[in-house]
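pasting for ref. prot 1 ->
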Amino acid sequence: MSEQEIPIKVNISDRFYPLRIPIKDEENVRNSVNHINERARFYTQNFSIKDKQDALAMVALEFASEKYKRQPSSDDFSIIDSKLKKLEQLLEI
């Protein structure tokens, strides 16, 4: 049985978008929409960005940059792997 979904409309930069989302995600989606609109407003008010499309592009770049900063690199995984192997060796003794 699939999760129950609800239809909602969200307003991003004065455009409405209809969505169907799981009920449990509604608060997260609405908070995300508010955050997008706040950041777009920040760019239009504090920089020489007048076009809403440009402001949304800057928001997308900001969010993508944040995501990649938090994403572990392959070096991080090799360090973790090395530490796990050392722990395994200690536990075998």
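and prot 2 ->
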Amino acid sequence: MSSGVAEIALRRDRIIVLSSLAVITALSWVYVSYLASGMQDMGMEMAMPRMQAWGVTDFALTFVMWAVMMVAMMTPSAAPMILMFAGVNRRRQKQQVPYVPTSVFLLGYLVIWAAFSILATAAQWGLHTVSLLSPMMVSTSPVLGGILLLIAGIYQWTPLKHACLSKCRSPLGFVLNEWREGRWGAFLMGLKHGSYCTGCCWSLMALLFVAGVMNLLWVAAIAGFILLEKVAPAGHRMGRAAGVLMVAGGVVLLGLTLWGGMQPEMNPGTESEPGMESEPGMGSM
């Protein structure tokens, strides 16, 4: 009976955790969609910084945007780890170990992404200051876009990326190696897992500036790729293949920019094209 009761409690916990994560993710996407539609319809008049110098309010509102977007993008990919924590925590309760709410672990995880959001906001402020972003927060410089693609693509092949992705792809291994007792321990576990996820995905988040931070299709595409990279059986190989494509895209973008800059500019009126010389007598007409 005790085993059956424990399984029922575990199943109930999974339903509660999954439902909570689904609600959090859905609300975050609703907010991001609201901001995106507001920018498109009202020219950034809805809670987004204008194309003038930022103030404290502009920075704070942009931080909120990034923080909510990170919740929307990263919560689904963190779900396996959160469910693993909840399951192990519930089983340990049978051994008379005090139960720690899963929300404590989730809070630690989201704190790391909130810290990342501060850095992203600062990066956006810097790009805004030098006029490298459009009102829709798209890079106005092909060179910047190409460099971001190159960085993201190369990073996909680095040992640091591989190490962080391995931690994200192995929830059970993380729990066995990083378990901490109590609420503070759960919070620290959330911080550590969030750090691994940030180490895995920061360069992909930088790609938001390539096609637009408020381009919902682009945001959803990156979030979907992150999810597949973490949970798909061949996710690590998929990530490396995507890295090759990113590098290729960056090289093409930079190459086209360089080629365009090398083309001579036509100066109308200085030289006439071949075959366009005036025929004799045409000037007297």
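The two ends are 109 Å apart (CA to CA).
DSSP finds ten helices and no strands in the chain.
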